[in-house]
Design goal:
Number of strands: 3
Strand order of the largest sheet: 2-1-3
Structural class: mainly alpha
């Protein structure tokens, strides 16, 4: 039984005279034993080697392309990660600077608010200290509030005096060292709320009471209202 041959031109089972078959080792040995011409067998072997070499080269080129594509992908990923790292660092620096500036502004605002509250608090600031530190406060709203507060204090003081001495009647105190018991002795009579107004030298030093502080505030406001913006900035700095 003859061994089927595979023709390069027509395929298995069909063999033309001028076609070159593809033979395996057993078929080659069979052809040698049958006395087939050797040049044709050598040509088939060389053709098979050429095909195998081409297939090997094709596989090598495919592997090389895959390797280059993988290498390019790895390089692109590395560049992308580096770009992301640089952008993240730059964004972190800008965010840190903005955050520090925001915290500094908030700290300055809180410190200024605490200083103003301490300045307004009557428990921690007496009138003399307030008069000395008044140049630090140039806010018009604060000046208006302070003026209204001092005016209300002065009005309440006047109302209290008017109530205590209604109808102009003074309290007369007896003088115990007077033998006749007269209450008209001015030399030894007791003091009343009107005595402070009749004296040439007041009990409270001038400028240390609410009225003196109010006058000081009004004078300062009048002086500041006549200044130019450049002068006010110079005072602030």
């Amino acid at each position: 039984m003859a061994t089927p041959l595979k023709c390069l031109a027509e395929g298995k089972g069909i063999f033309h005279e001028n076609a070159l078959p593809i033979l395996d080792n057993s078929q080659l040995h069979l052809l040698v034993e049958l006395g087939q011409p050797q040049p044709q067998v050598l040509l088939v072997i060389e053709l098979r080697d050429v095909l195998e070499e081409r297939e090997f080269l094709r596989e090598m080129m495919t592997e090389k392309r895959q390797h280059e594509a993988l290498k390019k992908e790895v390089e692109d990923k590395r560049r992308f990660k580096e770009h992301v790292r640089l952008e993240t660092a730059r964004h972190a620096k800008s965010t840190k600077a903005e955050l520090m500036a925001l915290l500094e502004r908030q700290f300055m605002m809180c410190r200024e608010e605490v200083r103003r509250e301490e300045f307004r608090s009557p428990a921690s600031c007496n009138p003399r200290r307030r008069a000395q530190n008044w140049d630090d406060e140039l806010d018009n709203e604060d000046l208006d509030d302070e003026i209204r507060r001092l005016l209300s204090l002065r009005e309440r003081g006047h109302k209290g005096k008017a109530t205590a001495t209604a109808d102009g009647v003074r309290f007369r105190q007896p003088t115990f060292d007077n033998q006749d018991g007269s209450v008209d002795e001015n030399r030894t009579r007791a003091e009343t709320s009107r005595d402070g107004e009749e004296r040439t030298r007041p009990k409270i030093p001038a400028g240390s009471g609410p009225e003196g502080l109010l006058q000081f505030v009004l004078d300062q406001r009048q002086e500041l209202s006549t200044m130019k913006p450049e002068q006010l900035k110079r005072i602030l700095h």
